[in-house]
Amino acid sequence: SAWFKEYHPYPEILSFFSNLAAEHPSLATFTPSIGKTYEGRDIAAITISAVPAEARDALKVKQIWWQGMIHAREWISGATVQFLAHKLLTAHADESDPDHTWAVKVLNESEFTIIPTVNPDGYEYTWSRDRMWRKNRRPVTGSSAYGVDLNRNYPDGWGTGGASKNPYSEAYQGPSPLSEPEVKVLTSYFLSHMKRAVLAIDFHSYSQLVLRPLGYSSYPAPHDAKLKAVGDAARDAIRATSGKKYVSEREIDLYAASGTAEDWFYSVDVGKKTTEDRGGNGRVYGFTIELRPSANEGGWGGDGFILPPESIIPVGEEIWAAMKAVVPKVLDDP
Ligand code: 0X9
Ligand code: ZN
């Protein structure tokens, strides 16, 4: 559709999801606000399943979480979650769609929650002022700097390296874990609504990577073999679909980072602070996926964040293929 030929400002993205849910009322619920950003914008969510909402607890329906746009300039991450949500619903609705049977099966046994834009204040700022803005837009107390890196502000392993204490840094971790309203909203919502989560993916750009925990420690994730199998399946599906090479690896092998969403997803289920603390009882498969372009194509000047809109559909299709490979793997895992 024409929608995927361009990137769109935040109010249009909200309308897109609201309309999408309205077109598929038996499958989708749009929640216009799960909470507010520092500047008062609503953070939205859409939930998709073919199981009636009131039956999902009793049937122990497994849950999957996709989020985009935690980093404001990574526009393709927003377009990709739009594409995935749209594809899931249209494939389910259209019997002639090649993925119809797959969508019916998956939506009969699971529930997807999609956060279109984790960081709407930053995203809005990339449209109005600075295309290369990354962080949120909260003024930092005691300095004239703005913004915390939301992907350094999650509480798991917070402040243990690969993040900055300097408010002017692009990787500023914030004054304390969960100091940022956006991270608070997202984690509270996840803890109250995602009790049966099995998979959570944070989409970013760029470098073409499928990254698995841990990111703040070289402590081996207790589920590394399973996490690797899932990550490798995503990589292979992408290669088979578009020919693009993504690398599947551990976060820490890229570089150390603490307070990331992905590590929190992996450790969240038993509510303890770190994977070590909870004796390795991980359950949520957390991933960071870095979309196109490749690091070579993107270069070091940051041009890689400006991915032409012609790439939205090809990236959407390769990531849809990755999700088709990954989702059954996590659903089948007891
Ligand atoms: O640094 C990040 O937050 C992510 N890269 S980005 O260029 N999109 O900002 C990657 C996080 C992956 N985690 C670790 N390397 N630990
Ligand atoms: Zn990012």
TrEMBL record:
<comment type="similarity">
    <text>Belongs to the peptidase M14 family.</text>
</comment>
<protein>
    <recommendedName>
        <fullName>Peptidase M14 domain-containing protein</fullName>
    </recommendedName>
</protein>
<dbReference type="GO" id="GO:0005615">
    <property type="term" value="C:extracellular space"/>
</dbReference>
<keyword id="KW-0645">Protease</keyword>
<keyword id="KW-0378">Hydrolase</keyword>
<keyword id="KW-0121">Carboxypeptidase</keyword>
<feature type="domain" description="Peptidase M14">
    <location>
        <begin position="6"/>
        <end position="330"/>
    </location>
</feature>
<keyword id="KW-0862">Zinc</keyword>
<dbReference type="GO" id="GO:0008270">
    <property type="term" value="F:zinc ion binding"/>
</dbReference>
<keyword id="KW-1015">Disulfide bond</keyword>
<keyword id="KW-0482">Metalloprotease</keyword>
<keyword id="KW-0479">Metal-binding</keyword>
<dbReference type="GO" id="GO:0006508">
    <property type="term" value="P:proteolysis"/>
</dbReference>
<dbReference type="GO" id="GO:0004181">
    <property type="term" value="F:metallocarboxypeptidase activity"/>
</dbReference>
<feature type="active site" description="Proton donor/acceptor">
    <location>
        <position position="290"/>
    </location>
</feature>
<keyword id="KW-0732">Signal</keyword>
